[in-house]
Design brief:
Distance between the termini: 69 Å
Mean pLDDT: 82
Number of strands: 0
Radius of gyration: 28 Å
Shape: flat
CATH superfamily of the largest domain: Tetratricopeptide repeat domain
CATH class of the largest domain: Mainly Alpha
Structural class: mainly alpha
Strand content: under 5%
């Protein structure tokens, strides 16, 4: 009787509490309770614990899906350009609306990578083949290929060794210099990033469509050379206007007290993202949110 009273109260309260899927799951539990109403819960019957296990399992699934539904609702409010349709779907049809939104909007826009441990497992034969190529042929190209594969599987120390071997074979090998710079960036060894990127930029200022230039700017800022970092970022953003680069420039201007320039760069970030296709705008939503927060912190009237 106590079990059925608990379910009755929950069934009445939860639909009003804004947790739709839990109420649906508890309605199923109510039907189970009605089918077992002639069987007192206190009696030591073998099916009584099965009923309670099913009831708590249904409640757990309901609460878990409700949390997932709330997550999708918040995501649509923050990042979805077409909020009206998706909010209508999530509210009118919580299930399977949240699943549809995840598959149709969240997953395609997300930049989710395969877990490192799975990459190491699936690429073990490739890594062994590339290692053999470095021993059999031993040119800079083979060491760069091996280093790239090690870097993709987050084996940073081994990747750094491979790139160093490639540079011993060919000190001017741009892919080896860039690979070594990426590894040093991942390891936060900014003092090592600076000469590597500088050597690349001296030979090809547009290498990797500005990726090397941006890495050099971040290394300057990380090593404390704020003046040179801002100057390089200003030149960089004139050629490659990525939201991250423009935001970092705005942040640097704000730290220098140049509120007018900071406000202008922040507005550029927001305008650039708003003018991008919806798929790109969702991927850059983090920088848009950070730009809005920085804009609120900037003094007004300047």
């Amino acid at each position: 009787m106590k079990g059925r009273n608990f379910l009755s109260v929950a069934f009445v309260f939860l639909p009003r509490s804004g947790i739709p899927f839990v109420s649906h799951m508890l309605s199923v539990a109510m039907l189970l309770a009605q089918r077992t109403r002639r069987m007192p819960i206190s009696e030591p019957h073998e099916s009584s614990w099965v009923f309670w296990l099913m009831m708590w399992g249904i409640a757990f699934v309901g609460f878990a899906y409700s949390a997932f539904w709330i997550w999708m609702l918040i995501h649509s409010l923050r990042f979805e350009p077409d909020k009206t349709f998706w909010l209508w779907l999530l509210i009118v049809a919580p299930f399977p609306g949240a699943v549809v939104y995840l598959v149709a909007r969240v997953i395609p826009a997300a930049d989710w990578n395969t877990p490192v441990w799975l990459q190491r497992f699936t690429r073990s034969k490739e890594l062994a083949r590339l290692a053999s190529a470095t021993e059999m042929i031993g040119n800079a190209h083979q060491f760069v290929q091996y280093g790239d594969a090690l870097r993709d599987t987050a084996q940073w120390t081994e990747a750094a060794r491979a790139y160093q071997q490639a540079l011993k074979k060919d000190p001017d090998c741009l892919p080896a210099l860039w690979g070594a710079a990426l590894v040093a960036t991942e390891q936060k060894k900014w003092d090592a990033v600076l000469p590597l990127c500088r050597q690349i930029l001296d030979r090809d200022a547009q290498y990797r469509f500005g990726d090397c230039s941006f890495a050099y700017a971040k290394a300057l800022l990380a090593t404390g050379d704020k003046v040179a970092g801002r100057a390089h970022l200003e030149k960089h953003c004139q050629r490659w206007r990525s939201p991250e680069a423009v935001y970092l420039l705005a942040e640097r201007c704000a730290e220098d007290g140049d509120t007018v320039a900071a406000r202008q760069h922040v507005m550029d970030v927001i305008r650039d993202i708003n003018g991008s296709p919806s798929a790109i705008a969702r991927k850059q939503g983090r920088w848009k949110s950070r730009a809005r927060r920085l804009l609120q912190k900037l003094p007004r009237g300047t």
